[in-house]
Amino acid sequence: MKHYIKKTMATALAATASIALLAGCSGSAGAEQPGDGDGLVPVNVGVFAAADNAALYMGVEQGFFEEQGLDVDIQVLDSGPAVTAAVVAGDIDFGYSNTLSLVIASSRGLPITVVSGGVAAGQDVQGGSDANAAVLVPSDSDIVGLESLPGKTIAVNALGNILEVTLKNALETEGIDTESVNMVEIPFPEMPAALASGQVDAAFMLEPFVTMSEMQDDARPVAFPYELVTPGFQAGVYFTTMPFLQENEATVTGFQNGLKAAVEYSKENPDAARAVVPTFLSIPEDIVAEMNLPTFITEADPEHIELFVELGQRYDLVEGEVDLETLTAGLSR
């Protein structure tokens, strides 16, 4: 059965999962799940709204997960932290999130473990065809670069997370006081309208919203914080919990194998990867045709995970010791 579910996390679920995360609780689906009516093992994967997950959707569409005996349902949540909270609470089996969310969870004693890479940033600090994230401003804005941001209001999808941290890192590289900018939370799909209406002075977006804002509202990029951290910055990964990994080894292996096949297919068939984006995001096809596709990866470099630990500690988001052995255990299988 080839299908997936698109939905926004309900308020009650968000509250429950967030409480579980903050309280240090850990959920697990228990022993190896039984198959559904087709003999497939049902698997839920939580993501947030961005083109980052095009390869995952391709895996469902092309049957790569079915070949591994899995029936994958994809659930769309509001942000990486929301996905992390839902996985920890045991509401979903796997999640896609920015790596910093997982580092923060680990520092709170939660048994999170990465099972696959997701996407990597580009190689050029000036952007380019492999850049998947950017700070954008209206075309008539007086903002010309990072040096123009002090005193401005900038949209990020979640405070205290990867966008805030990488933007602060970028500001520091230019010798700018990180407290001189005001960051506000706005979900990615709402950012183009918020920027166009003047609700914010700038917005830190991911694709396809970068291209949407450029094409529909004539916005322009002024900074690429991901690339300023390090070339090929591994911003997103797929993960689960250690209890789920230990109790559902065949399911985890099948998910990894299906995702690897999907990434390889997406790289070999970029037009197909683009075509799948409008099936899970309400994005016009002309925008999808012009956007930068994410750099899909399955390998996750432990050194990049350590880099997130350093960034989290620098900006006081990592509260305790990060268990790197547990956090990377899913990669060593």
UniProtKB/TrEMBL annotation:
Domain SsuA/THI5-like span(s) in chain numbering: 53-273
Signal sequence coordinates: 1-31
Cell location: Periplasm
Alphabetic keyword roster: Signal
Domain of life (superkingdom): Bacteria
Chief location category: periplasm
Classification via PROSITE patterns: PROKAR_LIPOPROTEIN
PANTHER family in the cross-refs: ALIPHATIC SULFONATES-BINDING PROTEIN-RELATED, TAURINE-BINDING PERIPLASMIC PROTEIN
Family to which the UniProt record says this protein belongs: Belongs to the bacterial solute-binding protein SsuA/TauA family.
The protein's name in its UniProt record: Nitrate ABC transporter substrate-binding protein
Source organism per UniProt: Leucobacter muris
